[in-house]
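User: I've been trying to design a sequence by hand for this structure and keep getting stuck. Would you show me what you'd pick, starting by listing the structure so we're on the same page?

Assistant: Good idea, let's start from the same input. This is the structure you sent:
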């Protein structure tokens, strides 16, 4: 639903000049009902001059009259033929100047941990261009040696919900194409909430990788302790050379 311009100033005028309920004013201006109540109490919008929606061709007086008689009636914005076809323009995401230097780090993070994302998806998430993404993918960026991958959500370049939606879309696309994914890839292609709900996979320490089948214990259960040779302390010292020396000593 379209909202009036200068919504807060319009709410101030409606509070001061009508008997509309807070709910009706909040629905019309797109504000919260408690915020409208704060305007009436003088806690919100102090010093804001009211903006007359009737005089400024945004609301008909007949709409106000109907709403004052029926508390459940919702005000409707006056139709403006000049606004027909005027939609929000779609373009690249605006990135504040203070955060633009962080974009290469976020691009590298997305390329490294979510290679399934297309250049177009990355461009929409962090507000960058495809040549920049391609340069970081191919490691031909002029500052690639100094770029460290950083999560774009942590940098404030995009929301976690937006990243999850892009990842989920990539997962559906790969599933439709019939590509087989590994467990790690499948874990990356789900949202953060789903990933956190997954059971943790057991991981083998790097120091003993390749020794998964090695065991210090005897796996054969058929042998009993009675069938094993009995080893005593003397047997360790009865070496072959000791037997000959014992015989010579006995002859002498």
């Amino acid at each position: 639903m379209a909202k009036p311009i200068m919504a807060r100033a319009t709410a101030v005028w409606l509070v001061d000049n009508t008997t509309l309920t807070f709910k009706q004013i909040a629905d019309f201006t797109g504000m919260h009902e408690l915020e409208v109540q704060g305007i009436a109490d003088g806690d919100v919008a102090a010093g804001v001059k009211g903006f007359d929606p009737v005089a400024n061709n945004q609301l008909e007086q007949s709409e106000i009259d109907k709403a004052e008689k029926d508390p459940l009636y919702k005000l409707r914005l006056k139709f403006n033929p000049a606004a027909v076809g005027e939609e929000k323009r779609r373009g690249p995401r605006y990135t504040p100047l203070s955060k633009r230097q962080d974009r290469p780090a976020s691009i590298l993070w997305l390329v490294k941990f979510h290679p399934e994302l297309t250049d177009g998806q990355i461009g929409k998430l962090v507000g960058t261009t495809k040549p920049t993404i391609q340069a970081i993918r191919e490691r031909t960026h002029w500052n690639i040696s100094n770029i460290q991958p950083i999560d774009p959500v942590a940098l404030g370049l995009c929301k976690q919900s937006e990243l999850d939606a892009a990842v989920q879309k990539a997962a559906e696309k790969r599933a439709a194409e019939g590509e087989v994914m590994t467990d790690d890839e499948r874990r990356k292609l789900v949202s953060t909430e789903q990933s956190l709900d997954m059971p943790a996979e057991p991981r083998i320490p790097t120091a003993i990788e390749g020794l998964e089948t090695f065991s210090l214990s005897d796996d054969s259960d058929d042998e009993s302790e009675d069938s094993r040779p009995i080893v005593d302390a003397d047997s360790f010292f009865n070496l072959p050379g000791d037997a000959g020396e014992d015989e010579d000593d006995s002859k002498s």
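That's my pick for every position. To get oriented when you compare it with your attempt: The chain has two domains: 7-83, 94-198. The CA atoms of residues 172 and 178 lie 10 Å apart.
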